[in-house]
From TrEMBL:
ATP binds at K287. The gene is cysS. A motif ('KMSKS' region) lies at residues 284-288. Binds 1 zinc ion per subunit. Its EC number is 6.1.1.16. This is Cysteine--tRNA ligase. One of its GO terms (molecular function) is ligase activity. A motif ('HIGH' region) lies at residues 33-43. It comes from the Bacteria. Signal peptide: none annotated. It is an enzyme of class 6 (ligase).
Amino acid sequence: MSQPVKLYNTLTRQKEPFEPINPPYIGLYVCGPTVYNYVHLGNVRTFLTFDSLFRYLTYVGYKVRYVRNITDVGHLVGDSDEGEDKIGRMAKLEKLEPMEIVQRYTNDFHQIMEIFNILPPSVEPTATGHMVEQIEAVKKLINQGLAYESNGSVYFDISAYNKEGGNYGKLSGRILEDLLNETRELDGQSEKRNPLDFAIWKNASPEHIMRWPSPWGDGFPGWHLECTCMSTKYLGSQFDIHGGGMDLKFPHHECEIAQGNGLTGKDPVRYWMHSNMLTVNGQKMSKSLGNSFLPSELFTGSHPLLEQAYSPMTVRFFMLQSHYRSTLDFSNEALKAAHKGYKRLANGLRIVKSMEFTIEEGSTPEEAHLTEIQKIRQGCFDAMNDDLNTAVTIANLFNLLKKINQLYMNQLLPSAVGREAFNLLRDTFVGFTEDVLGLKEERNENGDALIDGMLDLYKEYKVQKQYDKVDQIRAYFKAQGLVIKDMKHRIDWAYEE
Ligand SMILES: [Zn+2]
């Protein structure tokens, strides 16, 4: 925990030294998916961003309680206060019980997260599992004079909140008058005293499937309320970090701040972090433009915009190569380049983990190697400390990779490097690649086991001097984009550069 981590805080609009409330413990909350549909790649980017944060903070010694919810009720079509529940709507369309929809897409979500090597959170609460907490919160906000009932629905009162010293708009930097001017009166909004007021409880119309009894009649909680209830239940009335996609900054997170303050008198979150969008060939990814694809389409290459299939680790590498606060543009060129880059790192992993590092007795290592490796290692930490600069971390790993390859090719001698420097090199390379960046070898996808078997055959044929068969195996490798490195003392394979 000696690492001086700095994080960009959306609330203050600057990078700040990260100081946990109660070190070594850290409370991290991230808005999870609304499980009414397959998870798309933009969502994956968000969860991957916070996965690298979770991984890094854990790596440097913090004990992180990571809460990421599942929204299984209350998120209405168009993110608004009116209209159909996204899950209820799918349930009707598919003639299924809403919880069947929830289960199906929760399973899909978990599967996709695992494929991308995104770690599960410590707690994964659901909105329907916290109905009691949400109803209690609504009662409390009414008692505090910060919410009012209207036709069986309950709204958070923005004017009352601001009169009490609240500052609605402070996270997104929006000004109340501007917001009022932007807001059009919609049908049903006459229930509200002020168009900016937001629903914390909604009255369920007779045809609304998802409903629970409450002091205000049958209804369901407002979308913003669940995150307030679940984050503070598991992390306390004030916790360290709240993350989510950029699109959640307003109104979702703004409303969470208002609710949290209203319930406990405290700002609920110290550091707000938002990850940026994914674009495709420069355009925003969206279903209506036909340029949004599902992870499964990516793995099979079955989308008109994809020239080939891309593996999960290639995509992970691609996403980590840009900073989480910049937009990331998805193109075939960029993906192909990422594929090469990822393969080089994976090859380094394979080599360094299996390297037999034998040193001749009596040799003295050259000090310069240790110094250089220490410097690169520090560079990895510095980059991650600088608001999770994964791109610079990767650049540092490539510098380590050079040394690994030199050792492998005998251009650099183990005796010159020395045991201490080699251990540091291996720990840094494996630690940052696997533990921090979450990149692992995709052994099965490339049939590496088969390749290793072929290599054994190759050796055998060479000993037997069956050169036509030797050539056949070489050709087989070449077709896979691999080369056989036939050195005097050993035979190995590598990805073609
Ligand atoms: Zn949320």
